[in-house]
């Protein structure tokens, strides 16, 4: 073979090898990336050619389904005709144009039928000639509690409908019974096959600078200063340091922060109620939410206060990776605490302390569960289209931040706190802590918080409520704004119980 022909042959062989290598790279190594690329409409067209699985609540109520239509896209995703907004933070949306969010996104492979666990179903469908179908997702949501939480936020003591979030947990399992974020949106409009409806809705719900942010899931994706609700964690740190609820603390209206010229005041600049000789017990300080007492507690009464405080917060889940429920949850944090003055501010849930509503509900649930922190979860089980169970989520213990005895002491303190809160009393005994956290200047409407569980013994539900727009402006507090909403959610599940 002469040299020119040999060179041409080598070049052809090199190109064939390169072609094979590229084909292998694209089909093997890049397959998943190309499949999930939002610009790949072929995958979406394929998904819309088969029936997507159901999303249901714990009792079987369908909150997302696909119905056949006569169109290029053979199926249309539908959510409840009435109440879709209530369940939107759970289901998310499934849209040809805007893809998917929440469970629709994070359980997409089950719902669209491509998950490896559905291989047997796909194999049988192929040989039986049956149209391929997706699997089902059964959530832990209690529809009665979810709808009660959403209604309470719409009709709460706010400047218009409440802006904020509610999370309810089953303390002994970690099941998420309700997850509400308001204002909300109608996922049916994003699932519509009418492009004009989709685009106008998307534009209306994603306006730059809009404080409403209806598509923001405030329950798991927004961080707030927790205010005095964080005194539950601070009190737990003190109990872990062998401090008793009877310890005497200052009742002064203000407390000088160590190493600074600044003083930390009580709410309204008042002395702590129930004082004797200028002091109050930790239990009384907790009951009346006295800032100065807690500042003295962490700066003067606790030993090795900073590491003890941060360790306790970590045990409750702060400064740890947020759980996947399966949606990712933003990490809650106490922030850096380099000095005692910062510690004093962090002890009352201010400074750099930031929590999601889910995290604050977990704190209440841990106390309710005798000091055992359970991993929260939203998906109870996955099913094939013929309702065969593919996977069940078992309750999982995260850790034990406090002992049962310490949890009982905190419960007693929270019961007393509830009794001193406006509007207390009702069909079930509740243990709670309110909080009011600065959102900006002193004239801005603060964040109003309420964390609680009920019944106070053998608790069946723990809740966290945060409201951004209380109707009393700068005078909006957790006890008058968030507490009525939290009680309504608790009573929706256990309101028929005895006190």
Automatic annotation (TrEMBL):
Q: In what residue span(s) does the Penicillin binding protein A dimerisation domain sit? A: 52-137
Question: What Pfam family does this protein match (any one)?
Answer: PBP_dimer_2
Gene Ontology molecular function: penicillin binding; peptidoglycan L,D-transpeptidase activity
The biased composition feature labelled Polar residues covers 431-442
Penicillin-binding protein transpeptidase domain: which residues? 164-490
Q: Name one GO cellular component term.
A: plasma membrane
Q: Name one GO biological process term.
A: cell wall organization
Region entry Disordered, spans: 418-442
Query: What is the recorded name of this protein?
Result: Penicillin-binding protein PbpA
What organism does the record attribute this protein to?
Answer: Gordonia namibiensis NBRC 108229
């Amino acid at each position: 073979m002469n040299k020119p022909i040999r060179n041409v042959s080598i070049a052809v062989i090199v190109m064939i090898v390169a072609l094979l290598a590229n084909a292998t790279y694209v089909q093997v190594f890049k397959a998943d990336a190309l499949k999930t690329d939002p610009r790949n409409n072929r995958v979406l067209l394929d998904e819309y050619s088969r029936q997507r699985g159901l999303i249901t609540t714990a009792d079987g109520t369908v909150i997302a389904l696909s119905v056949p239509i006569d169109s290029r896209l053979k199926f249309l995703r539908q959510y409840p005709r009435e109440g879709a907004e209530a369940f939107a933070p759970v289901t998310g949306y499934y849209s040809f144009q805007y893809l998917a969010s929440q469970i629709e996104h994070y359980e997409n492979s089950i719902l669209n039928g491509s998950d490896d666990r559905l291989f047997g179903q796909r194999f049988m469908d192929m040989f039986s000639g049956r149209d391929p179908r997706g699997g089902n997702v059964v959530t832990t949501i209690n529809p009665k509690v979810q709808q009660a939480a959403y209604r309470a936020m719409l009709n709460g003591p706010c400047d218009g409908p409440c802006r904020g979030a509610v999370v309810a947990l089953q303390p002994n399992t970690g099941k998420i019974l309700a997850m509400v974020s308001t204002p909300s949106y109608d996922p049916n409009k994003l699932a519509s096959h009418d492009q004009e409806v989709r685009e106008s809705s998307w534009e209306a719900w994603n306006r730059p600078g809009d404080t409403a942010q209806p598509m923001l899931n405030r329950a798991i994706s927004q961080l707030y200063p927790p205010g005095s609700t964080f005194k539950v964690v601070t009190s737990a740190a003190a109990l872990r340091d062998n401090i008793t609820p009877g310890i005497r603390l200052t009742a002064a209206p203000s407390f000088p922060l160590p190493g600074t010229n600044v003083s930390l005041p009580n709410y309204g600049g008042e002395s702590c109620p129930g004082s004797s000789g200028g002091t109050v017990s930790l239990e009384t300080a907790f009951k009346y939410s006295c800032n100065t007492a807690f500042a003295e507690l962490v700066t003067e009464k606790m030993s090795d206060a900073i590491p003890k405080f941060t360790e306790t917060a970590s045990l409750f889940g702060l400064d740890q990776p947020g759980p996947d429920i399966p949606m990712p949850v933003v990490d809650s944090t106490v922030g850096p605490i380099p000095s005692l003055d910062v510690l004093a501010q962090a002890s009352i849930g201010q400074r750099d302390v930031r929590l999601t509503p889910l995290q604050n509900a977990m704190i209440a649930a841990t106390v309710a569960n005798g000091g055992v922190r359970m991993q929260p979860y939203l998906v109870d089980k996955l099913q094939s289209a013929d309702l065969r169970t593919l996977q069940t989520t078992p309750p999982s213990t995260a850790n034990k931040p406090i002992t049962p005895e310490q949890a009982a002491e905190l419960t007693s303190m929270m019961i007393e706190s509830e009794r001193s809160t406006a509007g207390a009393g009702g069909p079930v005994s509740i243990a709670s802590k309110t909080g009011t956290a600065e959102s900006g200047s002193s004239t801005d409407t603060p964040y109003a918080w309420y964390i609680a569980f009920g019944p106070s013994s053998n608790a069946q539900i723990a809740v966290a409520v945060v409201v951004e727009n209380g109707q009393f402006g700068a005078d909006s507090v957790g006890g008058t704004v968030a507490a009525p909403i939290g009680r309504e959610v608790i009573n929706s599940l256990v309101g028929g119980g005895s006190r």
